[in-house]
Amino acid sequence: MSAPSAPSTRRILTASLVGTAVEFYDFYIYATAASLVLGGLFFPKASPSAQLMSSYATFAVAFFARPVGAAFFGHFGDRIGRKSTLVASLMTMGGSTVLIGLLPTYELAGWLAPFLLCVLRFGQGFGLGGEWGGAALLAIENAPPKWRARFGMFPQLGAPVGFIAANGLFLILGLLLSPDQFKAWGWRIPFLLSAILVGLGLWVRLKITETPVFKEAMEAAEPSAVPMAEVVKRHPLRLLGGTFAVVACFAIFYLATAFALGYGVATLHYSRTTFLGVELGAIVFLAAGILIAGWWSDRTTPRHVLLAGCLGTIAVGLVMGPVMGAGSLVAIWAWLSAALFMMGFVYGPLGAFLPALFPPRVRYSGTSIAFNVGGILGGGLAPMVAQALADRGGLTPVGWYLAAAAAVSFVAIAPLKREA
Hints:
Number of helices: 22
CATH class: Mainly Alpha
Oligomer: single chain
Order of helices and strands: HHHHHHHHHHHHHHHHHHHHHH
CATH superfamily: MFS general substrate transporter like domains
InterPro entries: MFS_dom, MFS_sugar_transport-like, MFS_trans_sf
Number of domains: 1
Structural class: mainly alpha
GO molecular function: transmembrane transporter activity
Membrane topology: Multi-pass membrane protein
Strand content: under 5%
Keywords: Cell membrane, Membrane, Transmembrane, Transmembrane helix, Transport
Protein name: MFS transporter
């Protein structure tokens, strides 16, 4: 069977990819800035480690906002449709990002600076809470038979695309600007440029139509009055299993990006541009892993591929200390590449796996809540916990932490064998 190639199909897949790429660009520029400059600009003077920990704490704020956004946007996504909800989530995320680029620093505004930073960080997470689930449904609810996983991987490909755009821009700024210029105003540029990318994402999404699965569900019965309540009441075990299924992908990503960047610059004393270059060289393995996992999932099942990915992630975690701890750029790149490649197998199939756990009438809510609550457990505190572990015992306990997260996901995925 050849790949679907109708203009409407290309438009749908582009909308699911571009929108999440924009959203993840917004999210990643914050993660990068948090690792590099925000601690010293928005918090009182303290030790560099304390300021970095404070910066990571604001990073975590968005993860706690994401389930709130998931419940809000999921409610309307299941009642009025996927398209309009996706447009609203994109505008919420993009507006918050642009405003972060305009904030005064602690030196100018005192306590108001970190307060506003946390508020806008909450706005970023709130918008992203409704983004991924809707993008995944847009793709898989338009997929032909035997193509669900490959369609569902397109929102996942937004992750490496957004990461490359975000960190690539930071790398260019690092090469063009002096450290003082970057700290004074250069870090704001990626946040302000988000306005252009959001406009692009809106233009693409406003051209798509509602998914046929949602239309059929609305014709068959009245929409759920409170979709989230229905998910909790009728599908509690699937919601719980889906939530823990995503822990591994969040843990591995934020340990291999945000934490690794902060550790490489602050502890290993590599320059910011050097380490960003290493991470950009490794992120292509995430894209490769997603593509392979999507193809393999359609040949077998998404569950089968996710279980294999969890086992591979455990192995990657156990070798983190001796490999990355060696300190050489080649060893660091090798570990980051292996970690992100394995992330492709615990992340790529989620676009097909999580929606299949819930019926269409409450699918937006169930998928979004599981993904974003899992994000808190797997990624929200990961950089901060990893930094604390590294300060006390080096990278080996950080690797154990990653292996434990993957084991949790393996145990959660194993019983989830049937679609709703």
